[in-house]
């Protein structure tokens, strides 16, 4: 065993000795990622409805918001909030400064939430617009109001069809959460960088962080694959039984 450890290029005992720090980093990463996704999804629903309805006032406002946050890097957004907000006296003197805007965790959460809400808004808007016309016409024919159509027909259908694309957004948000390590938070990458800096290493911290991200992404993909099988089964192409694919008798076309 000692011979294997001496030959192995990574210092596994050192990683194991500091693995409790990585577990804390996992907790920080998952907390920021999934809380921002939940808040962003809650914001995205009404914003997507406003975009899909083409309201003359709300539509351009929501479009501007999504364009700004989708057109600029998450790192820049986080830096502007964490380092830039304190440059304004009215923000430093407000009641939000001490408990919220002066804290790295809250700044990261706000930036992540606004960013993922912008992407989720456009994703859900596309799913709403692509709702089959037959479903909408059937709802109108049965006397559903606009709100009733949204609640019972359009939104449930859009949510189901958005599952595959939203799985990518969840993974992108997880990867984007590494930005938190640049504003003093000890997420997975932050702990990896700490380990490399503390012991003058090149690979151990980063490779351990990469393996942890790989495991989390694998779990996320499995969950979304199960959701797709459960809620999109009716959209799968039905395969005819092999027994039905028998050639017709000669002389019959």
UniProtKB/TrEMBL annotation:
Protein name: Arginine/ornithine transport system permease protein
Keywords, ordered alphabetically: Cell inner membrane, Cell membrane, Membrane, Transmembrane, Transmembrane helix, Transport
Any one cellular-component term (Gene Ontology): ATP-binding cassette (ABC) transporter complex
Gene Ontology MF terms: transmembrane transporter activity
Transmembrane residue ranges: 28-50, 62-83, 103-121, 170-189, 201-224
Domain ABC transmembrane type-1: 26-224
Lineage of the organism: Bacteria, Pseudomonadati, Pseudomonadota, Alphaproteobacteria, Rhodobacterales
GO biological process, one term: amino acid transport
Family: Belongs to the binding-protein-dependent transport system permease family. HisMQ subfamily.
Protein localization: Cell inner membrane; Cell membrane
Cited InterPro entries: AA_ABC_transptr_permease_3TM, ArtM/GltK/GlnP/TcyL/YhdX-like, MetI-like, MetI-like_sf
Topology in membrane: Multi-pass membrane protein
Organism from which the protein derives: Gemmobacter caeni
């Amino acid at each position: 065993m000692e011979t294997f450890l001496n030959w192995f290029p990574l210092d596994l005992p050192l990683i194991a000795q500091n693995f409790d720090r990585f577990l804390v980093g996992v907790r920080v990463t998952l907390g920021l990622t999934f809380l921002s996704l939940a808040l962003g999804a809650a914001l995205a629903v009404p914003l997507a409805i406003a975009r899909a309805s083409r309201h003359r006032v709300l539509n351009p406002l929501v479009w501007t918001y999504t364009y700004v946050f989708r057109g600029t890097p998450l790192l820049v957004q986080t830096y502007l909030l964490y380092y830039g907000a304190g440059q304004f006296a009215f923000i430093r003197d407000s009641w939000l400064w001490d408990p919220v805007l002066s804290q790295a965790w809250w700044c990261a959460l706000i930036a992540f939430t606004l960013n993922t809400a912008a992407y989720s808004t456009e994703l859900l808007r596309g799913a709403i617009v692509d709702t089959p016309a037959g479903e909408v016409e059937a709802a109108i024919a049965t006397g559903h109001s606009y709100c009733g159509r949204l609640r019972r027909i359009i939104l449930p259908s859009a949510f189901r069809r958005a599952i595959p694309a939203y799985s990518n957004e969840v993974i992108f948000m997880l990867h984007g959460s590494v930005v938190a390590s640049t504003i003093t938070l000890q997420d997975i990458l932050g702990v990896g960088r700490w380990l490399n800096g503390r012991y003058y290493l090149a690979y151990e911290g980063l490779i351990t962080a990469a393996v942890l991200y790989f495991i989390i992404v694998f779990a996320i993909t499995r969950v979304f694959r199960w959701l797709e099988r459960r809620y999109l089964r009716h959209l799968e192409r039905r395969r005819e039984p092999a027994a039905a694919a028998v050639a017709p008798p000669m002389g019959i076309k």
